[in-house]
Amino acid sequence: MMKRLSAEAFGTFWLVFGGCGSAVLAAGIPELGIGYAGVALAFGLTVLTMAYAVGHISGGHFNPAVSLGLAIAGRFQFKDLLPYWVAQIIGGALGAAVLFLIASGKVDFVAGGFASNGYDALSPHGYGMVSVLLIEVVLTAFFLLIILGSTHGNAPVGFAPIAIGLGLTLIHLISIPVSNTSVNPARSIAAALFAQNGALGQVWLFIVAPLVGAAIGAVIWKTLLARD
């Protein structure tokens, strides 16, 4: 279990450090030109790379919502849910802490949003709470369908992480303008801890919506799509 929890912590660390790091350190530099598309790809690559690196140890969840969805779908034991959540949140927070230490070394650094998620005034383009809630639920549900489908023998052996990583990239391409994309409570908590824009007061939505979406996706998969 310790190896499994360590794998989840390291994987979530990399997801936050790599994904949020691309937004905090690189996206705002015009000559780099990565923009929203580059940040979306960075998040997808973090999951893809760590799924290959440590997925065989822990299952490669790196996301409390994914762990819940897999448990509801019967692919993960409920008794392991809380330890996985703790490991993921700790790993994500450490990733954000290291990112903050690096970013704050810049002379004119201001944390600001720090790649956090939000609605209303904290949404990148001013989307309201209902819009953000809906997109987070829907996209997390589809993320679970991608994970459950690609790891259920529908993708060639060893190719599932590619589908999952590209799925997460697509999710970010859709929703960065709306919510700055969560679909992952650990990622949202980690960024909100270091943001200086009030994101911590809105992080509840980015805990609740992904968990609800994951549960919906798991139920859809289990009742309508899974082979007997």
Question: Characteristics of this structure?
Answer:
about 230 residues; mainly alpha; Glycerol uptake facilitator protein; 8 helices; cell inner membrane; transport; Aquaporin_transptr; membrane
Q: Would you write up a description of this structure?
A:
InterPro entries: Aquaporin-like, Aquaporin_transptr, MIP, MIP_CS. The chain crosses the membrane at residues 36-54, 84-105, 125-147, 159-179, 199-221. It is found in: Membrane. Keywords: Cell inner membrane, Cell membrane, Membrane, Repeat, Transmembrane, Transmembrane helix, Transport. Belongs to the MIP/aquaporin (TC 1.A.8) family. The protein has 228 residues and is mainly alpha-helical. The protein has one domain (2-225): Glycerol uptake facilitator protein, CATH 1.20.1080.10. It contains 8 helices and no strands. It has helices at residues 2-26, 35-58, 64-72, 81-103, 129-154, 160-179, 185-194, 205-225. Helix 2 (35-58) crosses helix 6. The two termini are 30 Å apart. The mean pLDDT is 95.
